[in-house]
Protein: Aminotransferase class V-fold PLP-dependent enzyme
Organism: Mesonia aestuariivivens
Amino acid sequence: MKNLRNEFPIIGQYTYLNTAATGLLSETVFDYRQDQNLDMLTQASMFRDQKSNLYAEVREALAHFYKAEANKVALVPSFSFGFNSLLEGLPKDAKILLLKGDYPSINLPIEARNFDISYAEIDENLEMNISAAVKEHQPDVFMFSVVQYVSGIKIDLDFIKELKKNNPKLLIVGDGTQFFGSEVFNFENSGFDILGASAYKWLNAGFGNAFFLFKEEVVERVYPKAIGFGSNIGKYKQEENTLIGKFEPGHLDTSNLGSIKAALKLQSDIGVEAIEQQVNKLKILAKAEFEKLKLLEEKVVKRKAHSSIFNIKGNAELFNFLNNNAVICSQRGNGIRVSFHYYNTEEDLEKLLSLLQKFRG
C-alpha cells in the first residue's frame, strides 16, 4: 500500500481508527468538490446544463464497480432518506424480520410503522438464528446491516446467497454503509435484492450522498409514493414512474453525489483488491492481539470471520486516554470502538496496543 499521507493529511497528525464513524475525506474528493462549487459560483445555470449527464455517470460508475445495472441505481442524500422511501413502498401489513439491536437507522423507522415485526439475535450463531427466525415467522422481508456498527460482526455473504436460494420470495434488504468500500463485491451474484449505503464512511466520499442498488424483480414488489419533477428526468429515467425516479423526486446535489464517482475512481486507482488485502491483514492481526488481551466479547471471539471494526473493553477513562494520545476512536455500547481501513498501518495497531498496555500499567 503506497504512502497515503498526501491523499489523507490527517493521518500524519493522528492515529485515525474511526472510519466506522466518519471516513476520511481524500484530497481527490476535496478537490472535486472545490471545483464543482467554483463552477457553480461562476456559471450558475450554465453549470447545471453542463452537468446534465453527471447523475448517469455516477450510476454507471457504481454499476461498474459493484456489478449492478445502472438503471437500477438510485441516488439519494443519505441512507435514511432512501430507506424511509423504501419502507413507504412496502405493503402496510408486511412481515419484516430484523436483527435485535441493529443500527437505529434500520430498526427505528420500521418499528415506527405498523409492520408485523420479528427479530433474530446477534451473537456467534447469527446465521443459525436468522435461519430459525425465517422458518418460524415466514417473513416477507429481511432487513439488516451487513456489518454491525457496535460489535463489528459481519454477516456471512455466502449464507445470504443460500438464504435467498432457499427462500426465493423473501425480499432481502441490506445496509452496506459499514461494508461498501472495504472489499470487492458483486451485487448481481449476491443474495441481496436491495442494498443501500451512505458513502461517507468506508467509501470516503464525504457527507450528503448515498445510493441504493436494486435487482430487477424489486420493481414488482416495491411501490414508493414519492414523486416530483426530478422523478422522470435524465438518462435511465425516461419512462414515467421508474423505480429509481421514486427515490429522486427533486433536484440532486452535483457536488455531493458526484463525490461518489471521484471516490470510486480513487479506490480504482489504488486497487480494490489491494484495499481488501490491507483491510484483511489488519483485521486478522488486530483480532488476534485483542483476543490475547481478552478485550473482545465472546460472541466475536467465537466467530471465524469478522469485519475490521472492533469493540474493545474499556471505559471513559481509557477513551479519554487514547484521545489525549492522538488515537481517534468512538465510545459505542459498553466499550470503545476502533476500526481499520486501507489507510491504516500495522504501526497504527502497534501504537494502540502500546497505549493499552501502558494504560493497564
